[in-house]
Amino acid sequence: MDKSQQIVAKDSMDGELATLNLGPTHPATHGIFQNVLTMDGERIQSAEQTVGYIHRAFEKIAERRPFNQITTLTDRLNYCSSPINNLGWDMTVEKLIGIEVPKRVDYMRVIIMELARISDHLVCNCVIGVDTGALTGFFYLFQERERIYDMFEEVCGARLTTNIGRIGGFERDFSPELYNKLNAFLKEFPKRLEDFENMLCRNRIFMDRTIDVGPISAERALNYGFTGPNLRAAGVDYDVRVMNPYSSYQDFDFKVPVGKSGDTFDRFNVRQEEIHQSLSIIRQALDKMPAGNYHADVPEFYLPPKQEVYRSMEALIYHFKIVMGETDIPSGEVYHAVEGGNGELGFYLISDGGRTPNRLHFRRPCFIYYQAYPEMIKGSMLSDAIVTMSSLNVIAGELDA
Amino acid sequence: MDKELLINAIESRFPGITEASSEPFGLLTLEIAPQNLKALVHWLKDDEQMNFIFLTDICGVQYPNQGNREFAVVYHLHNLEANFRLRLKTFVGRENINVPTICDIYSAANWMERETFDFYGIIFEGHPNLKRILNMDEMDYFPMRKEYPMEDATRTDKDDRFFGRIGNESVTFDNKKALAKGNNHG
Fold first, then answer.
1. How far B177 CA lies from chain A's nearest CA (Å)?
2. B16 min Cα distance to partner chain A (Å)
3. Chain A: residue nearest B59 by CA?
4. Do A346 and B76 touch (CB under 8 A)?
5. A173 secondary structure, DSSP code
6. Hey, are the CB atoms on A332 and B133 less than 8 Å from each other?
7. What 3-state DSSP class applies to B49?
8. In angstroms, what separates the C-alpha of A149 from chain B's closest C-alpha?
9. Model ipTM?
10. Whole-angstrom distance, CA of residue A397 vs CA of residue A374
11. What residue in A sits closest to B57 (Cα-Cα)?
């Protein structure tokens, strides 16, 4: 008997397999989902996932809601980066009804979406740190995430479930206070991020815990429908912002970072580099911010200012028609995708001319790539499976819809 | 790759397979009979020129009152190299609600098909584990079907009329009275 066999025999607790329920409410899974694991000692033999614990039937609800009320549903998909979902949905409706928004709106949206991407990636990477034993970075960078939320609050009044933006633009222009906050953030945040990177990126313990943990090849990742940082970590440079630019992303100069082995370390580093790229995009957008209006001139869809409603007959009529759903919506079917925090977030909207969608389907990146989880953790240790899950950034809201 | 090339290539490989084609918002959409779907998707993925290696999405759609074309399964494929998206649609009726699975071609299709089954009851033949995914196993109906209203069916303020589906002429005097009554309750 050679040495490796001895270790296996010792680990397998007399060859008996144990069933372990990881979840549904396990604190280490950062969300409500269950994994039934078959364990051979500390090693995972097989896994079966159960999802749907926070299924809220968004697609059914959406069939009974006017377009502007669906934005609040999208908040609750990937709630770590709600603004991307909100604005992605607004752009889908604009595509259907053929609204052309001013360039300024595009740039404002880019700033908001990139801030959301930063906060999304921060949560994920800080949590990878937590799961490998580094709690400090999480507390340190959560102060920065608070500042991003303060900026969202400045724009729309809400922090987490933002309901930011409107069909046709924004509900109000960026305030001077927002620019102050944004400039201060751009100045101070890179230093904090560097502290975080200095703590983890070349840290022996962190590297040992993440390199070659939960790897997936580019070929398998594509077959499983991976998108976003998880796909890019495997070496495929697919980014919706570059492939199908929306909201004027073609005006910005940024890199699409890719990894090589698709393991947890690569996923961490891809996200980390994307934060830097997002910062650069925000700076470019601020520098080049065009003058103009903060919303398109579409009175049929964009609510008039409230004081106008009391003064002007036109405004009153449009206000009434929008609120009561009397606006004509063209029929048609449209697929629009944006690069969410976790990859391609798609909206497939079929309108039959009614006030609500006839069918709305969300392409939720989490739901699609979480299928690969058993394949990625097979044969690994339980603690590695936990790190793999946090590096996939599975968000229960997006998983279940 | 462009639209003409793709349509011609499909036509020469599988003559007459395309039952209808359209291009809403620049996305080429082909309608394929369910029995032809699998061979086509397999070829689209494996053929070097076609190269649709990425399955973006699968979802179900219901069109009530369309008889044996009541349910549609919609596939979004993506050729990443040429950045070309393709939408395939296949229609089935309530009586024969079977569509071949494609999860042996794309692993990603597994849960997408389970979700479609869960919502609409569309049977994906050959699927290794076709059971509910988001709803509980005990559920005895398919909740996304239009015959199951989301809210209490006795409510009068969430009538189809208020969602712009029926013309104003259908709102008769009696309806209007009922409407006013409903609003009072609300």
1. 19
2. 25
3. A361
4. yes
5. P
6. no
7. coil
8. 31
9. 0.90
10. 20
11. A363
What the block records as the tokens of A306 is 């409230």
Domain limits, chain A: 3-50, 58-400
Instruction: Decide if A315 contacts A308 (C-beta within 8 A).
Output: yes
Query: How many A/B residue pairs have CB atoms within 8 Å?
Result: 105
**CB of B137 less than 8 A from some CB of A:** no
Q: Which residue has the tokens 């206070």?
A: A177
> How much is the pTM?
0.90
Contact across the interface for A401 and B143, Cβ inside 8 Å: no
* CATH code assigned to A58-400: 1.10.645.10
DSSP secondary structure string, A89-100?
HHHHHHHHHT--
Sign of the Cα pseudo-torsion (A191, A197, A203, A205, in order): positive
Phi, psi dihedral angles at B62 (to 5 degrees): -115, 135
Structural domains of chain B sorted by starting position, each given as residue range(s) with its CATH number in brackets: 3-147 (3.30.460.80), 149-186 (no CATH)
Cα of B12 to nearest chain A Cα, Å: 27
Digits of tens for pLDDT over chain A (401 positions)? Answer: 344 443 444 455 556 888 988 878 877 777 788 899 999 888 999 999 999 999 999 999 999 888 989 999 999 999 999 999 999 999 999 999 999 999 999 999 999 999 999 999 999 999 999 999 999 999 999 999 999 999 999 999 999 999 999 999 999 999 999 999 999 999 999 999 999 999 999 999 999 999 999 999 999 999 999 999 999 999 999 999 999 999 999 999 999 999 999 999 999 999 999 999 999 999 999 999 999 999 999 999 999 999 999 999 999 999 998 888 788 889 999 999 999 999 999 999 999 888 889 999 999 999 999 999 999 999 999 999 999 999 999 998 999 88
- The answer to whether B87 faces chain A, any CB pair under 8 Å, is yes
Chain A residue with the nearest C-alpha to that of B24 = A333
Q: Shortest CA distance to A272 belongs to which of A234, A244, A233?
A: A233
